[in-house]
Fold CSC1/OSCA1-like 7TM region domain-containing protein.
Amino acid sequence: MARMPHIGAIIPWILLQYLTLVEVLTAREDAVKISLQEEKLQLFCEKIRQLQHEIVIKEQELPVAFVIFKSRWGAALAAQSQLHSHPLLWITKMAPEPRDVSWRSLAIPYRILPLYKIVVVLSASLLTIFFAIPVTAVQGIAKFEKLKKWFPPAMAVELIPGLSSILTGYLPSVILKGFIYIVPFAMFGMAKLGGCISKSKEEIKACNMVFYFLVGNVFFLSVLSGSLLDEIGESFTHPKSFPSRLASSVSAQADFFITYILTDGLSGFSFEILQPGLLIWHAIKSNTFGRRGEKNPYLYSLPYFRIIPMISLSVLIGMVYAVVAPLLLPFLIGYFCLGYVVYINQIEDVYDTVYETCGEYWPYIHLYILIAIILMQITMIGLFGLKAKPAASISTIPLLLFTLMFNEYCKKRFLPSFHHYSIQNAVENDELDVKSGQMEVNHENVINAYCPPCLRPVNFLESDSSSKQPLVSSS
Amino acid sequence: MARMPHIGAIIPWILLQYLTLVEVLTAREDAVKISLQEEKLQLFCEKIRQLQHEIVIKEQELPVAFVIFKSRWGAALAAQSQLHSHPLLWITKMAPEPRDVSWRSLAIPYRILPLYKIVVVLSASLLTIFFAIPVTAVQGIAKFEKLKKWFPPAMAVELIPGLSSILTGYLPSVILKGFIYIVPFAMFGMAKLGGCISKSKEEIKACNMVFYFLVGNVFFLSVLSGSLLDEIGESFTHPKSFPSRLASSVSAQADFFITYILTDGLSGFSFEILQPGLLIWHAIKSNTFGRRGEKNPYLYSLPYFRIIPMISLSVLIGMVYAVVAPLLLPFLIGYFCLGYVVYINQIEDVYDTVYETCGEYWPYIHLYILIAIILMQITMIGLFGLKAKPAASISTIPLLLFTLMFNEYCKKRFLPSFHHYSIQNAVENDELDVKSGQMEVNHENVINAYCPPCLRPVNFLESDSSSKQPLVSSS
């Protein structure tokens, strides 16, 4: 797999040759020559295949393999049981969808995988804790007064009356929003290094990290003053005073969060529809890397790792303020209705399905809602304490315990269904396949589907996979 | 199973009749009559079997079953995989040894099992936290002055010079030791209600609860002054000051723990050899419940739930004091050598093997040692802080993190081997059995072994199981 770039360099060269050939041929319209060139291409393909096989022979074998079973039943049994007495020597997992496999991560040896994971978790938590530092630094530098000094054309803004004061007021907020907009992509980049075997797992990991980032840097930083590190230290040294501190500051910040929900609803969803980030990225790409970028206007999949944490944060804010400041709830309902309309449109018409998520996000969203409920109940404990109602405060504690016990129950009752393919279902599906005679066909399909990308037969005459097909033909 | 006492009442009655019959017959020495009476007995046995079957038909079926597989391979696969899509509707586990099965717990429906577990954990933690209250209460009542008033014969002690002062001095300590001696049995009684499917699991549960009890009530209560509840509250409100508080009090209590190790070594092991508790219990039993108790001087199994926590506590004390007060270590080595000699003797000659533990205690002892190392490292952090060496104190924190990470590694590397029977081993053992032709024999044995006790054929002519056989015949 380390030699991939070598082949990768050959393919565009052949592609270029092929394209020039096609142009020449259409000009001359000579059928005989077309077949001649196609034969030549076929020869090139043969050459490439030969190179691929040589690489496979030369490279050391990876300690990863896709094993294809004749029945779902056998696969489910093998995936769920410990095969070797050394539990780390032979690990079996259900394979992800073929288009969902993260081939890059499969090449990482299992021994050093924990290191990758620790590095990713460490860097994500460092980003979460010290996020405020670069933001305040940039906010300090990018003041309008200083901008005028360093970038004289910015003077032009002063010609329009009122614009300069708006800029001065909004600039820090825009910088903060810009940083928060970039964070999900940074987290996704980190999660890609985490050695997950599938792209969906990478996205789920990124989704988790972004959610905790938002809870820390949007919810807690807005509610409690001071840096996040101070807050964590304070909570560790005086955990008993945490509920009352949370309660007093939560009730003081109700107005801020109404504004937050409104702003996020109006600006966030219009951003989602207009996709300015993608447009800017494409503009930069096409101007920097040349015209090649323009030839592949890929369809993207729904960025779950950006959308789910944002909406979960709104759920959290709604939960915490449901009792403290119920005036926030109508705004939240408006936010969710708008979000429903926007995302139904986006999912149907804008984004492409790159792989099936199979409801794998559900346990995580359940966890986010649980965190919201727990925060709400802690706030209630503090609030009743502040209002000098110790009886109400103490009787909220069992409620908190019940929430935690309900979580334990859900873990036992529902979580296994997300991790294991039950033998009953496997056998039932096998029987259905045997009845309809699909068993052989499925088996054939599977063998072809899990071929690694570097060994796939090169075929110039067929179009690329549907996910990379442009919406509008760019001839 | 609810009708068990009914049958239980029949059996002794028949036994009594049988014994009187035997006496009469040996007097007359009439072979013909013996065979006649044996036929009658056979009839009784038939009657009992019939009753048993009627009960089984009348009773609702229990939702528990032992399923016997033709190969270890199949059993291992079935035990490790999720069979039904509802993970709590069909739970599979490897069956314990036949003599290790806890038939009483199997009758508890799975739905209310979590309730049992919560009740057991709650009562065990209440006992741990509030243990000091009854002890101090009894110590307050049982003063020698008061004893003389309420129990005049105690005056006799005063006739021997010096004895009364020894009594006054030792009485509180004896009461404390007595309470601590009873606790393991109380914990074992609680663990029996916890609904474990095997006696070994019950003992492991009791072992855990006793260890935490000892750490709380012997280590922490001796080290830190004040009640355990105060200590827990203090640790929660000011977790940051915990290491320094622990360090300062640990170094002050070194002498106490040297005495503790010496006393526990000398008195504990001599108690173990002389078994006064068992003797007193038997004396009480035989005088209270009549002569029936004397007829069954059962052999007991090694009480792991009493011994392992005691020795683990000594390991913990040794770990914590290894750096603070190394003078304790020679005493500890003496303690372990003495313990080795005593327990080798006890295991070989005194206790009986009721079931194989199969090394199931190992992960728990590993955990206890880990707790000891963590406590040691926390003490070190506090101690370096007290000695005004912040650099040393801070550089001990990564050590603590490494300990925790090592624990995570061990959990992944070694723990699965204790929970799952690996398919490789199962297949290898199956092949060995097939080669030696033991497969059929094993299968036959298994079917007979897992017969519930209420359905076992009653047989008066054979002796009882070996675990209940008296060492000395009591004719």
In short: The two ends of chain B are 33 Å apart (CA to CA). The interface with chain A takes residues 76-77, 80-88, 114, 236-240, 409, 412-413, 416-417, 420-425 of chain B (CB under 8 Å).
